[in-house]
């Protein structure tokens, strides 16, 4: 869903490691030696700088009783914590020195109007790190380990890796006292939690946006520090001096409530499971020097919860067994009561999938306990996974998870649920299904109907928290006409995986009798949970488990039901968001037929007594957006390649081109449905209620934008590659330009839409002829760019420009003479444009996107592996 805090990049079916960046946080106090101390100051941009101030004041180590009076009550737990005269102390036992702890900082409360920069609501994560408390002489340090390099402790390379992977120091503390039996040390953490520490405070984006200048201690405080058996929860209020405020600039400050959880990680990490790009899981990567490979090997582990059977013997016999520790989600007490049962059901729906892995009752959801039932419960507590409900007009939801960077074990999740996702669900369900679904023909749905849609979204987001990324290839498994079958859809829904972006069934036609119109947890989801969560007896190594899992995967290879298609590429037409079925042209034709039925009824179906026409305007825009999606789905077939990751054990290509017949089918579809002006999109009676003269330009802009998408240099590069490899079996650039020419110049008297399209075509050709079309991203190889869809090409030396030059001359030669005044002026203008393209005298202005990114040629898919999702519910922008 719409999360834009984006630190990781999706690479060939896996995800970059959960980032724990050594040295990324400024230190509050970092003493280099015992003769110098460091003074921290805050610069206008919020960064922390240090300066030496001379010899420190040496207080020395005191008796425990001098600092902690005998009557002081300890808050016992992971560390004993104490509050004395406004100061907070940690008593750190020696047994926990050098133990790894996961630290997660979240918002508790935020100011109103904070509506950008990723994190903005109570419950959302700001930062996570792993800490190790280290004792050295008279000091205690917090170190931040890095997991980018590894080697097994028994490996010859272990010490070498340690020598080149030093853990950064985040902060240092003087030892104030030893405890009574000298098995632990006492430190003062007051200044640490009150300070402007990056790991415990605002993100850089928010600091920059509001021009913060450090924490104002006079308006900040530690609210509570509470210790529990395996974690400590620190609740703080921080006021930052700020040049801007989301609410009132006269205050010159911005205030937040924050919670930092420090959770003890298992002493022995969970056994990792090696990632396979043929089965979709989020994961983490590292360079492993401890293998037998004759190179530094990049390994990847999937993210998954630790599920182990209570009764291993019964599990081995094939019986369903409960796990030792169940996955539990709590529903935020702030959630409207009527939606709670549906959110719970969305979680519980995954129980069946876990049965495929041999577990029963593996996952559940329940209402959070009240303060009376459990006064210690907190939705910010890192021990608990929670579905948080945000009072927000953002149309979004997202499913994050936090994993142990040593093993990939998922430790907790805080699903983000924005109130206004219901508005988006209403819009899409109406626009995509109202032609066949009377229940969708209303301005407001019943609670039962909205609840079922909430249940569907809940299941999707919980799938992310289980380690599952989007499976964009899933919906391709079902033939288009199967989605018109009531029997089929009642059993299968719209796709084999709820993790696809297969929203609602826009293919079913009136009279088909289809009533099950949305996705459900399907066959692929059962398979992926089985693959990721099956427990193997006999203490097998990860490498031995990999061999067993590879046999399973090879057995399912070739069956589209079990196909995983990654997010983050525009080369494979099967891997598209919002699409259904195995033929985009056929599916889109059905979808357009339904839009033609829906559009004339929008005013009636959006009626609200005594309300203005803003809802009609919104739904009309959704019709335009849905049409735009269909055209994008079709376009991706042109120059498309099928991507099927394989191992040496499997036959056949990993990459092969979409067939010539399918590519030409797509080009001719666009001629018919796009370049032949879709006048049905203009309903004058409804437009009169809200359109102030922009709709015609918007339709023209859509046509030109989509034309530009068809003519991207990367798409043409793949077509030339296809021609070089497959000759007459390829759909060529020459054939594409011939088909485009026929579709765009097929009339002797063009109307205003066709004139606009002809000008757009020439401008796109002009861009290809005279503008650099190269793509580059710092540190990204050409092979990686190609995997995203930015297929590299040297356009100056390529065959593109000769073909474009020939096409421009063909157009110029074929321009008719005469005609009415408008037509004659139009052709005269085209002649001048072509002349300018062939002999440029001014900078080229790209108006159609031919050199840039059109729909489905978007920028690389960048994912937040903490959230497990990216922009799950995007609306399509149809403006040019």
Report on this model:
This protein is α+β, with helices and mostly antiparallel strands. Among the domains are: 31-138 and 175-265, no CATH class; 312-421, no CATH class. The chain is built from 24 helices and 29 strands. Strands 7, 8, 9, 11, 14, 15, 16 and 17 form an eight-stranded antiparallel beta sheet that branches. A five-stranded mixed beta sheet has the order 21-20-22-26-23, covered by helices on one side. The protein has a four-stranded antiparallel beta sheet with strand order 5-6-13-12. Helix 8 (421-433) crosses helix 15 (614-635) and helix 23 (800-814) packs antiparallel against helix 24 (821-838). It is globular, with a radius of gyration of 30 Å. 46% of the residues are buried. Residues 61-110 form the DUF5118 domain. Residues 1-19 form the signal peptide. Residues 123-310 form the DUF5117 domain. Keywords: Signal. This is Zinc-dependent metalloprotease.
């Amino acid at each position: 869903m719409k999360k834009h805090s984006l630190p990781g990049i999706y690479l060939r079916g896996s995800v970059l490691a959960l980032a724990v960046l050594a040295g990324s946080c400024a230190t509050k106090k970092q003493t280099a030696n015992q003769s110098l101390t460091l003074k921290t100051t805050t610069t206008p941009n919020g960064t922390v700088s240090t300066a030496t101030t001379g010899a420190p004041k040496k207080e020395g180590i005191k008796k425990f009783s001098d600092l902690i009076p005998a009557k002081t009550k300890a808050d016992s737990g992971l560390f004993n914590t104490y509050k004395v005269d406004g100061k907070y102390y940690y008593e750190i036992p020696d047994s926990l020195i050098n133990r790894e702890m996961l630290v997660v900082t979240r918002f508790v409360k935020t100011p109103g109007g904070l509506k950008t920069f990723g994190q903005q609501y109570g419950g959302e994560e700001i930062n996570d790190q792993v800490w190790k408390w280290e004792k050295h002489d008279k000091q205690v340090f917090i170190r931040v380990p890095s997991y980018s390099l590894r080697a097994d402790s028994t490996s010859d390379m272990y010490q070498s890796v340690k020598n080149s992977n030093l853990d950064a120091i985040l902060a240092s503390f003087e030892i104030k006292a030893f405890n009574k039996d000298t098995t632990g040390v006492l430190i003062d953490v007051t200044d640490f939690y009150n300070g402007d520490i990056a790991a415990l405070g605002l993100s850089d984006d928010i600091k920059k946006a509001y021009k913060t200048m450090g924490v104002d201690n006079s308006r900040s405080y530690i609210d509570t520090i509470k210790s529990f058996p395996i974690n400590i929860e620190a609740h703080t209020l921080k006021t930052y001096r700020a040049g801007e405020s989301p609410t009132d600039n006269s205050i010159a400050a911005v205030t937040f409530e924050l919670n930092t959880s420090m959770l003890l990680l298992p002493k022995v990490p969970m056994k990792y499971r090696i990632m396979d790009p043929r089965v979709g899981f989020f994961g983490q990567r590292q360079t492993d020097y401890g293998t037998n490979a004759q190179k530094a090997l990049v390994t990847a582990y999937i993210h998954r919860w630790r599920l182990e059977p209570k009764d291993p013997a019964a599990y081995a016999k094939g019986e369903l067994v409960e796990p030792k520790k169940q996955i539990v989600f709590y529903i935020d007490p702030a959630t409207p009561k009527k939606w709670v049962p549906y959110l719970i059901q969305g979680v519980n729906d995954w129980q069946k999938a876990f049965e495929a892995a041999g577990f029963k009752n593996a996952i559940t959801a329940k209402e959070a306990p009240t303060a009376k039932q459990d006064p210690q419960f907190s939705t910010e507590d890192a021990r608990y996974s929670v579905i948080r409900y945000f009072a927000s007009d953002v149309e979004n939801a997202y499913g994050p998870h936090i994993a142990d960077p040593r093993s990939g074990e998922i430790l907790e999740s805080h699903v983000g649920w924005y109130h206004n996702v219901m508005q988006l669900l209403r819009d899409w369900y109406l626009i995509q299904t109202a032609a066949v679904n009377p229940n969708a023909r209303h301005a407001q749905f019943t609670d039962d109907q909205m609840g079922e849609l909430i249940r569907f979204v809940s299941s999707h987001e919980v799938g992310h928290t289980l380690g599952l990324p989007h499976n964009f290839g899933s919906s391709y498994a079902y033939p288009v006409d199967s989605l018109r079958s009531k029997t089929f859809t009642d059993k299968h829904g719209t796709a084999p995986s709820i993790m696809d972006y297969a929203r609602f069934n826009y293919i079913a036609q009136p009279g088909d009798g289809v009533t099950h119109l949305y996705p459900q947890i399907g066959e692929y989801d059962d398979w992926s949970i089985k693959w990721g969560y099956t427990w193997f007896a006999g203490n097998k190594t990860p490498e031995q488990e990999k061999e067993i899992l590879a046999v399973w995967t090879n057995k399912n290879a070739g069956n589209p039901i079990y196909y995983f298609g990654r997010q983050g590429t525009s080369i494979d037409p099967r891997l598209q968001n919002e699409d259904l079925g195995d033929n985009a042209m056929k599916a889109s034709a059905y979808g357009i037929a339904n839009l033609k039925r829906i559009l004339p009824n929008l005013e009636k179906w959006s009626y609200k007594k005594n309300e203005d026409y803003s809802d009609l305007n919104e739904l009309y825009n959704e019709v335009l957006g849905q049409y735009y999606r269909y055209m994008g789905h079709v376009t991706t077939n042109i120059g498309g390649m099928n991507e099927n990751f394989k191992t040496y054990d499997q036959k056949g290509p990993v990459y092969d081109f979409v067939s010539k017949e399918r590519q030409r089918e797509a080009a001719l579809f666009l001629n018919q449905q796009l370049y032949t002006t879709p006048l049905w999109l203009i309903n004058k009676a409804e437009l009169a209620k809200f359109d102030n003269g922009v709709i015609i330009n918007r339709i023209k802009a859509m046509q030109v934008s989509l034309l530009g998408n068809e003519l991207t240099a990367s798409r043409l590069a793949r077509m030339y590659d296809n021609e070089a490899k497959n000759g007459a079996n390829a759909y060529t650039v020459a054939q594409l330009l011939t088909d485009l020419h026929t579709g765009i110049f097929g009339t002797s008297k063009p109307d205003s839409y066709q004139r606009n399209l002809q000008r757009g075509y020439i401008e796109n050709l002009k861009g290809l002829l005279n503008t650099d079309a190269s793509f580059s991203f710092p540190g990204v190889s050409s092979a990686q760019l190609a995997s995203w869809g930015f297929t590299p090409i040297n356009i100056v030396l390529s065959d593109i420009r000769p073909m474009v030059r020939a096409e421009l001359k063909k157009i110029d030669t074929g321009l008719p003479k005469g005609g009415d005044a408008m037509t004659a002026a139009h052709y005269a203008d085209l002649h001048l444009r072509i002349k300018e393209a062939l002999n440029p005298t001014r900078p080229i202005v790209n108006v159609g996107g031919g050199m840039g990114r059109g729909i489905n040629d978007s920028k690389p898919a960048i994912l937040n592996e903490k959230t497990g999702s990216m922009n799950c519910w995007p609306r399509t922008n149809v403006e040019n």
